[in-house]
Amino acid sequence: MTHMIHGPHENQGESFEDKPEVPLSGIIYGDIIYWGTIIATLVVIAGSIMSFVSRRSYIDPVYLLTSVWQGKTVEDIWKDAVGDQPDGHWYLWQLSNDTGLTVAGIALGIFSVIPGIIGAAVYMFKEKQILFGGLAAIAALITIYATIA
Hints:
- This protein has helices at 24-53, 61-70, 74-82, 98-111, 113-126, 130-148.
- By secondary structure, it is mostly helical.
């Protein structure tokens, strides 16, 4: 007699076809975040590799890591490294060095949320899901403000 091994859902009458369908707005949001994160990761990796092979750096990586391990504050690290903590999106003017490129990659990863939310909101408004579309639009505005302020 042969024994068959059954999955946990076989006895419950469930199958993969019974799973709820993912809304298109969720797929739009997820795909944009996914690819934005992949691209951002590649930019961060490129900046990290540059820090090992290049002498051109906004902040000396050895000093930065040593300061972090010593428990120095962000303000102290910036003050000791470049004289003062830069404001805003300083990395945009430093893309040719490893620090600027790495921080730009991190910012890109965070920024990818914005087009994802907007894409999902647009689709929700098209599907007459006014409440969820409105909430997504509000979330997009809050995120935009947080990234540019």
